[in-house]
Every structure is written in C-alpha cells, then in structure tokens.
Amino acid sequence: MTATDVVATPATGAPLLQLKNVEVAFNGVIQVLHSVNMEVPRGKIVVFLGGNGAGKTTTLKAISSLLAIDDGAVTGGGILFDGQEIANRDPAQTVRAGIVQVLEGRKVFGHLTVEQNLRLGLHLCSDRAIAERERERCLELFPALRGLLERQAGYLSGGEMQMLLVSRALLLQPRLLLLDEPSMGLAPLLVRQIFGALARINRERGLAMLLVEQNARAALEIADHAYIIENGRIVMHGAAADMRNNEDIREFYLGLSVGREKKSFRDVKHYKRRKRWLG
Amino acid sequence: MNSFLQALASGTLTGLLYGLIALSFVVIYRAARIVNLAQGEVLMAGAFTIWMMTLAAGLPTLLGSGLALLAAALIGLVIERLVFRPLIGRPTTTIVLASVALIIVLRGASQMVFGPETRPFPQVLPAGAFKLGPLHLNLALTIGAVLTLVVTEALHRFFMNTKAGLRLSAVAEDHMTALSMGISVRRSAAIAWALGASLSALAAAIYLSGAALDVSVAGIGLRALPVALLGGMESVRGATLAGVLVGVGESLASTYLDRHTSGAMSQVFPFLVMIALMLIRPQGLFGWKVIERV
Lengths: 279, 294
Ligand SMILES: Nc1ncnc2c1ncn2[C@@H]1O[C@H](COP(=O)(O)OP(=O)(O)OP(=O)(O)O)[C@@H](O)[C@H]1O
Ligand SMILES: [Mg+2]
Fold this sequence. Notes:
The complex is a heterodimer. By secondary structure, chain A is of the alpha/beta class. Chain A has a domain at 17-105 and 169-245: Rossmann fold (3-Layer(aba) Sandwich). Helix content of chain A is 38%, strand content 23%. Chain A is built from 10 helices and 10 strands. A 6-stranded mixed β-sheet of chain A has the order 6-7-8-3-9-10, sandwiched between helices. By secondary structure, chain B is mostly helical. Chain B has one domain (2-126, 134-280): ABC transporter involved in vitamin B12 uptake, BtuC (Orthogonal Bundle), CATH 1.10.3470. Chain B has helices at residues 2-32, 39-56, 61-84, 92-114, 139-161, 163-173, 175-180, 185-208, 220-231, 236-257, 264-280, and strands at 119-120, 129-132, 135-138, 212-213. In chain B, a hairpin with a 2-residue loop joins β2 and β3. In chain B, α1 packs across α9, α1 (2-32) packs antiparallel against α10 (236-257) and α2 (39-56) crosses α8 (185-208). The interface between A and B is medium-sized, with 30 and 22 residues. The structure holds adenosine-5'-triphosphate (ATP) and magnesium ion.
C-alpha cells in the first residue's frame, strides 16, 4: 500500500492544505503576497486563477518551499499541511511529506531519456516491486509514453512532455499535487486530454490538486473550488460551478469575454514575458 | 612512417591523461555549474597528498596512494563547503573570480607548507617503457590510459544508470527542477567535488609517477581545460575522446611543426583548439546544447 492508494481519513476533518495570512517577500523587501488565505480539501481539485504577475507561481513555491533559491521567503502567516507547519523548509522534506510541484514551463530533464526522467521520479522509492508497479500504472494512464521510453525528453512534443511531467510527479507518490499552468501553449485537443487525465487521477486515486491555470474555462470544468488572485491578494473564491456560470466574474476578474479567451490571454502573457526578459 | 605512428601512439597516451583531468572538470561542472579554473591546483594538492602518504609517512606506495585519493576527496569537500557553497546562486563572474582566488590560495599554501624545492614523487605505477611492434610506449602512461578508459565507462554508467548518478544528472540540468523533486542540490555538489578532486589526484599519480613534484605541476590544469571544452563540459565520454584528439594533435605538432616554430606549436596547440572551438561550436563536440522549442 502506498500513500496514493489511500485517502487518509482526517482525524480532525481539517483540510489537507491550509494557507493562513501568508506573506511572501523577495530579498526581504519586495512583498509579493499579502495575507493569502486558501484551503485545499482532501481529494478535491482547487483551481487558482489570476493574471500575469498576480502571484500564482509564488504561492505554489511558497507551499513547496522553493522560494529560497530566488531569495524569497514566507515572511508572515502559516502554511499547514495535514496540520503541520511547513513554510520555509528544506524542499526535499516537503516532497517526502507528500507535496509535489510540477513547475511551469515544461521542465523535463531534456538531455535524459524519458525512461531516465521516470526513474528520477522513483528516486525516493526503495522498494523495487512498488517502483515497478507505480511505473506501470503511469504508463497505463499515458500509454503514449510507452513507445517513447528511449527518446531524449527534450525532443518530445509539448503534450508528450506534459504527460511525462505529470507521470514523473505521480511517481513521487504525492498526497497533494501542485500544477503550474500545465496547459500552457498546448493545442485545445491536448488541453482537453491533459485535463481529462488530471480529472481521472483525481477520481481514481483521490489525489488532491492545486491547479494554476490561465485556461480558466477548461480548468473550472474539472475543479471543485476556485480562487482568484490579483496583485498578491485573494479577491474571490467559491465553488467552481458558481464561477463557471457567473458571467460577471468571467468578464471582470478573468478578463474573458466568451469566445476569444484563449487567444487574448496568451497574447497578453507572451507580451509580458518578453518585456520581463528585455527589462 | 614509424615516427608518425609513434607520434600517434604517444599522443593518444598523453591525451588520455588530459582526458582524465578533463573528466575532473566535467564532473564538477555538471553538478555545480562551476568551471573550476583551479582544477590544476586541486591536482597539485592531490599530488602533495600522495607524497605525504607515501614517501613522507612511509606507507607502501599503493596503499598510501589509495588513501591519498580518499584524502583528496576530503579536500574537494572542504573547498566546496568553504568556497563555492556560499556562492550558490551568485553571478558567474563572482564564481570564476573565486576560482582564480583559489588558484592563488592553493599555490601560496603549498609554497608555505612544502617550500619551493622540487621533491621526488613516488613510483606509483611501474617505470620504464615497452615495445609494441615498432612502437615504444611508456608503461606508466599505458596503465594510466587503461585506467582512464575504465573510469570513463564507469562514470558514464554511474551518471546514466544509477539512482545517485541520475540525481547528479538532474542537478546538472536544472537546479530548481531537481529541488522540486526532492533532490538535494547541495549534496550533489558535494559528491561532485569529492569525485572531481579524487579524479585529479588519480591523474596526478599517473602524470608524476617516478618524476619530480613541485608547485609548477598545477600548470597541467590549464592545458586540460581546452580538452574539457572541446569534449563539451557536460560529456563524460566526450572529455576522454577530446583528450585523445588534443593529445594526438599536440604530438603531431611536436613531431612535425616544432622545429619550424622553435617548439611553440605543440605548446599552443590546445589553446588554438579552444579558440577555434569557441567560434564554431561553443557547446563542444558532445556538450549539451540548449534545446530550443517553440
Ligand atoms: N525572484 C523574484 N524577485 C522579485 N520579484 C519576483 C520574483 N519572482 C516573482 N516576482 C514578482 O512577484 C510577482 C508575482 O509573480 P508570479 O511569478 O508569482 O506571478 P504569476 O501569477 O505566476 O504570473 P504568470 O501568470 O506570469 O506566471 C510578480 O510581480 C513578479 O515580478
Ligand atoms: Mg506563474
């Protein structure tokens, strides 16, 4: 039995993950998150929306203790996982505790093969039988990977990379999966495939997820709850179904008008990215 | 014809020695993203350690040299901990300057401890030459060459097939991604430094066996740097192969061109290769090129 097989019944009924008034600053001065409150219940998918630079990635990295490498830190509030304070720890500890993040930007190990990437997902697993079974489970979930095992990961297509990344993260046997824009730059058909796979993983394994997305409509389809962040503050949250149906919210907070959402969003995003690089 | 074959053969043997030193650059570069310009000085420190363990302490040569390889690993760990770990995440210029400072510190320290005089180095590998057909080969270098080939293959498999090695490869690709998977970047850097320093000491043992030791041996580090660049800073097999190419080129230059260039050609050959390479193929023959995807 592994952690992913059982949805542990909480003694307290407390949510799996709880952010309480979380503040994050970079270099000790640039404050990016202001009193962020958020919850991820056990076994649920929570989608996390917001414009460019709103603080989505920063929030995920705060949870997985990946801020230190960029000179950032949680400077206030608390992050509770299963009731345990986990802010500003060693990221390896966080992974062992069961929080695994899929970073934004398709970070496969491009010079290694698909097989080697998968084996790295199993690097904490010392039981060969479990390792083999988990690997087999992932290949059942994404059969396309089976024929690509010896391929160099850097030359996979975008969709294949995303499958590899989700598999690699699953092999670390998380209890909470953090995903940062898994659909970025993918064709609509692939977006549906990826979200379909995530929904299936959630259903079959009861794995809780916190999903950052620009692709609001597709994400709201599979989510239970949604949070919207703006300038480092949570400005709205609620049931995903309500968000989906509320046209005002779509217009005002997501900047979507029905029909051309994906295009406009990506344009804005790429423009900002380029500006960030140049500046 | 014979002199040509002889030049090829001795070039290959010297080249494999360069390859071994280049490997020490590669191993450290992969995990820590540091081109340690002081790698020659690390080799020198390894050489003095071997001398201390054998001739000074009176241990049997092979036992003493073996212990010295372990001690060299320790020196690597100390350098990583004291000099480079505090610099993780700093700009490349800072790190390069730190490695220049390390050159000066290590040379100064050895000068202080061991003095300027030349001392004998133990005969770690058997002395002499042997005949193979028309060729005369240096026995120590030949044994060293075989060792280098074995080490290359072992390292390659380590990085590609073992858990610990794959972790180091992951760190070589991207620190943030490695961290996100629970891989310790610090531990990887430490392992890489221990391994790199140990490889340097092994190279010292082959290079100096039965010869003389003083601070100037460190100079071989800079001669091996172009080799590491040629192979591609990330490539284990590339380093060894590039060693052979440079060694043979140098040896041919020495046989055929040196008399017209007052002996300069073989000296500058590796650096000519380096400059040409920077212009044509900056990632080296087998190095990782940035995979561009749209
Ligand atoms: N290392 C850093 N140092 C200083 N400021 C940073 C750093 N990283 C991010 N920021 C700032 O924090 C804010 C939030 O960034 P973050 O990456 O969390 O946004 P995001 O919501 O993920 O945006 P995107 O949709 O573009 O990915 C931005 O204003 C950004 O400039
Ligand atoms: Mg982001």
